Amino acid sequence: MNSFNEVFDAIKDYCRQHVVAASYTLFDGIDPVDFSADTATLSVRSEFLQGVVNDRYIPLMKEAFRAILGFDVQIKLVVAGEAAPAAQTADPAPALR
Predict the structure, then answer these.
(1) How far apart are CA 38 and CA 81, in angstroms?
(2) In this structure, are residues 60 and 19 in contact, taking their beta carbons and an 8 Å threshold?
(3) pTM of the predicted structure, to 2 decimals
């Protein structure tokens, strides 16, 4: 696998095999953002979906990452549009004169 997108497609396939079809549809609302060191950052469409994934599917997704990559991965969920809150709250740079 050459990219995080390919890895995440394999993760979703793994999860599809371990949940009922109706539950799997929520994985359509999860997108890969970044993979650095041992942390996968995933974007979800809403805070509601973030809560559902955190409450019910993080253990399965960690199991999937371990099965696909061969090592443990931490999962960080961000709500789409809120991926860089630090940049949104930083003071603006002073104007040049």
Answers:
(1) 23
(2) yes
(3) 0.78
Distance CA 85, CA 97 (A): 29
CA atoms within 13 A on the CB side of 10: 16
pLDDT tens figures, 36-65: 989 999 999 999 999 999 999 999 999 999
The CA–CA distances, whole Å, from 7 to 16, 30, 45, 84 equal 14, 13, 20, 23
DSSP 32: E
3 state DSSP class of 76:
strand
In this structure, what token pair is assigned to residue 35?
A: 């993979």
